[in-house]
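Project standup — Tuesday

K.O.: blocked on the structure for the chain from last sprint. Re-posting the sequence here as requested.
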Amino acid sequence: MPKKALSDLAIKRMKPPAKGQVDMFDMGYPGFALRLSYGGAKSWVYFYRMGDRQRRLTLGHYPSTSLSEAREKWRKAKEDLDLGKDPARKETSSDNFESVAREWLKRDQAHNKTVGEVTRVLEKEFLPSWRNRSIKDISRHDILLLLDAIADRGSLTMARRVGAYVHRLFRWSVSRGIIEFNPAADLPKPGREISRERVLTDDELKAVWKAAEEVGWPYGDAMRLLILTGARRGEISGLRWSEVQDDCLRLPGERTKNGEAQSVPLSKPALAIMEGLPRIAGSEFVFGREIGKGAWSQAKKTFPAKIAPWRIHDLRRTVSTGMNELGTEPHIVEAVLGHKVAGVAGVYNRAKYEEAKRTALEAWGAHVVSLAERMKPGKVVAMRGAS
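H.V.: unblocked you, prediction finished:
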């Protein structure tokens, strides 16, 4: 069992083992060790005995829990042990952080579409360090250490989102009378989340369209529908035949980001693609099954490498930009994309702009077909109703 006087510098220099785990015990702190795991994870552990059983208590993860903080947790755990209490006992207090967080998920987040993602982040980022702590004891400094640790591993976007989640959780806790003030209020943001502004050029859009034609069903056809409709990836990924009605995609509220039913008129090129799709016996999905994120990523690898790095969502931004450049009024573009109208207009103007949306998407579809024709002389995408 290796021992040494631990320091921040020594910890930073420690390399993970080639396999498994190794415990580096802190000299002068009996049973207290830094566990180094294959893959680079570092966690604080306390080995102790209760009766004739050897036990281990995790005190946090480095660097979100610093050396000094871990030693202080060790002292408190040892004090409990000296009093005959099990340091690893599960707190049952109603202000235990995990208990409060679970209640917050149930009371405040259950109806949000992102509750699954929030739960995943809670379990990965919060609970390892704060699980059994009283929420009243979690300070502004604790929150900053957590966010800094996430940012230091290169995940600035995640750090900002974690900051937003923790702010909501503590704000809700104040409203419920669990804590007196929100320690996350006015917290500085750890870096700047970069807003995506990537819009494909006409040449890039042509190249993606060509690759999508070559890939074919299901991913290539799904990609072309994304280009022609401006719909979100998830809306096309899980498209059902029952949602294709009257030359439109009729998406129920539970399938849209804003929770409101959305209709997306299908242009002639989009209808031509829909009419060419096979129907899989026993499946309600247009593409045979719901297309997962991993499948999209694999399919995208077959697309042209010469195109500068792009994401699936960039297609939606390209559709928006393209329709605006074709002269579509901005509020019609917003309606096509299914965005909520902000302010008073969003309350009183309930017009769906169905005809205007169809006109806009027909113009966009014609533009995309024109690009495809210029790319492949003599080849014209079949259009419904064409003579």
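K.O.: great, moving the ticket to review. The first strand starts at residue 3 and ends at 4. Residues 202-375 form a domain with the hpI Integrase; Chain A fold (CATH 1.10.443.10).
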